[in-house]
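Replying to the earlier thread about multi-chain prediction with a worked example.

Input:
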Amino acid sequence: MSASVMITGTSWVEAEARTLFVPRLNNAYEQYLFEESAKASGVEYWQVKKFAETTGLPHMAAMEAAFDEAVSNAGLQRKIKKKNGNRVGMIYFDEYGPISFMERKAQIKEMYYSDVFPSFVLQAHNISGYSVRLRAERNAPMQAMQLAKNLIESGDLDVVFVGGINPCYSFFFLSEQLETVQWEKQQGIKTNKENNTRNLNEAAAFVVLESADHAEKRGITHATEILEINSGREYYSSKQADKNPLPNRWNLIAQRYPVAKAHMGLYPSELMTKTESMLLGDSLGDAEQVNWYERKGDSNSLNVLRVLHEHIRISESNPSVQLIHSADRNGFGWNLLFK
Amino acid sequence: MGPTIVVSGVGCMSDYADSSDAFFEKLKQKECVEFEPVFTDSIIQEVFGFRFNPKFAPMKRLQKQHGSRYKRFGVTDPRVALMVKTTNAILKDAGLTRDDMRDERTQVMWGAPGNQPDLRSFLVQMQSNDKLDLMLNPKLKDLHVKKFRNDSLTTQYADYYDLQRPVDTVFSACSSSLSALVPAMAQLQSGQVDRVLLLAWQEVSTFDILFMSGLNILAKDQSLPFSGETEGLIPAFGIAGVLLERREDAQARGQQAYFSVKGLSASRAFGSANSPSMGAPARMLSQTFESLIEKVGLTPSDIDAVFPHGNGIRASDQAEATAIAQVFAETLPAVANYTHQYGYMLAASGAFDLVAAAYSFKHQEVLPFHSPVSLDDTKGVNFVLDKAQPLSLKRLLKNSIGIDGSLVTAVLESVEAA
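Result:
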């Protein structure tokens, strides 16, 4: 193997049964958000998989389970040798900042692990290398993987765990829906109100990034290689369509890599998905398009990790080059190329 | 070995001083900031269960003063306005302009916890509220994703500068400033970017106050780092940053850099799986200092000055002082900590010390710090207390400790010695 960066492990822990969200009668604000959101977007049914309700598993326990699964899947020892512990790190991402107070039972220890850093998983595995929390948006995994890749390439670390959790709190998903409608309005697009149901998943997930040399020394002979992660400004407004650099970016990618499959639709906006699909056809015409829009339920920032997990763990081994594209409302889009 | 990375511009803002020049001047005069009570209403203090009203320095006046200035440019959040103002000061100091921020090869890193909601707006009524509550407390609507998402801030900042790369916001509690240095250095040394603007900040949010109160680390009256009489810490909202680039790029512009970053050590190695860590033990600190110094090809006698973390939590300060005394017993480098004067800047504390280090390297002296009490708890440490200590400053060790268990240490070197 070369000095490249590989994905040597993945994990995915998801809540099980879906329950229909009904706003609480004693919470006028929740009802207000629910009604406003339905009026603006047409979404009246929120099918939500929640850890506490369907599995009894709190968020941090789900995160721990996902981390342990990633350790195991990567073939790493449960207790990393102490002398090597500082060569392993974690980039833990989150979208919302402090949320422990959403749970009535949260005490100072829960606040610490949930809102500052879940250091207990590192201590449990003797991991003592550079580890931080990354505050980012839906594309947090892309951003975190890019940071991890840099740290591996610079020689700071050999292995980096990248992951997080997706909590589904009513105040967040209802107001998020309102924000999306507001964003679509700003782009001059009429919101499609035909789809009246949204499926949301609470989940926890990790991927393990590792230098190829380190993986080879451990006897890993086959792993998914990260070819490139890039980001840039994107424009989805019809008024700014000519400014959208996506075609150029994808044309450049097409010159460098024979992309066989392109995953898109990771942001639950029909506008974004249609634009991506149309532009993709122009630039990467031969690539098979996989549209994740509402395919398996929305797990927010974990959607990217789900694609990787399903490709690596569930799909058959496939050496072809694949692309994951995902954009945020903040105007930045990301491309991840792997094989 | 990669290219030499230098700091070519600095800037800061807080209630203590609204610019780096004012900051240096106040440090020279050994001035102290005036703190204010967190709760303006004793009823709210009781609702949140506080036995005493803690103090802080929240930059309210500066947010009000500058908050409206950038509104016509789309910067509607006063916190972002202060970040923009500080960023512009750093750019000017580095001989760069706003156009350089638009460059595809410019990366912005925030060492910060990011956006946090004001829990006072909704915490009490979050689980149960009626229409009357909604009418009487319009702030209940702050229980909205835009008050939680970090892009509420980064989008305004990125749009103002038309950044071509997303802002990376990394957080490792109070070592966030130096933690952000690690990926910044990796990107610069690999040649992926030409410059990194590292901006560290942490607003003192209600969450922070509740969390620190829960840990019993807030001072009632006095925070006196490295003194046996300290009661804990007094937090302050501060923004500080540096411009990092390759030495030859700064030289090509004719820009005199302040110092170079010779080496970094970042680890996460204290606390246990069952309990959060409140500080790093002295032995671990001394091992970290020694191994970093050795890694960069130096010995303890090559270190002329030390800026410790010094947050005002007694156990943490004592461990740091013990480690400094052990490692530098023979050479006694100048040790300075200004936390008592401007407040504990949390995630930004390391960046404020980088700004102070810029002064020290430029003027070849370590400014004295003010302590109203004796520091006799910390024998064997050469604290600079009375007057500025002139020295031939070649290398400075900066240490940073996060309550999340992180420990980040940097060796900074004069540009001439690099």
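The mean pLDDT of chain A is 90.

Feel free to reuse this layout for your own posts.
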